[in-house]
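Lecture 7 notes: from sequence to structure.

We start with a single chain of 168 residues. Read the sequence below before looking at the structure.
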Amino acid sequence: MTTPDLQEAFQRLVEEHKKILYKVCHSYCRDRDSRDDLAQEILIQLWRSFGKFDGRCRFSTWMYRISFNVAISFYRRESTRTRRVISDEQRLLETADETERQPEDVRLLYRFIEGLDPLNKALILLYLDESSYREIADVLGISETNVATKIGRLKNKIRQEFSGAKQA
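Now the structure, written as tokens:
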């Protein structure tokens, strides 16, 4: 495949699966600038790796795998880096602006996902995207049994969180 053909195929596939990019970036970054930076890093890594995509798995599975790897590295790097200080008022306004438009149950779910470790965050996003246990296992590099166990535990934890939030 020639370089223009490769670029065209890449752009078409990324456009078809851009929701993956949005979900991963939104789940790992709270502010718009960080989400944009992460999206750019993911796209760069996807392009660098695209020549090695052999079609043994679906493109979406491959894209998730790379996106999560980049996001987890980005998240770790950002967590250890000292961040510029902004006032609590600015942060509160920014967060309120983003979440006001969402229904209460969606806000609770995002809050729950935000508190998860990187592996469980990836797991729940794939599950909510209706990926099969096999696909989730392939993306995360764990067994299907482990996927099922972790999803069961996360469902129980979500039930507890939602029932506690609704009673409050």
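The two ends are 59 Å apart (CA to CA). Keep this in mind for problem set 3.
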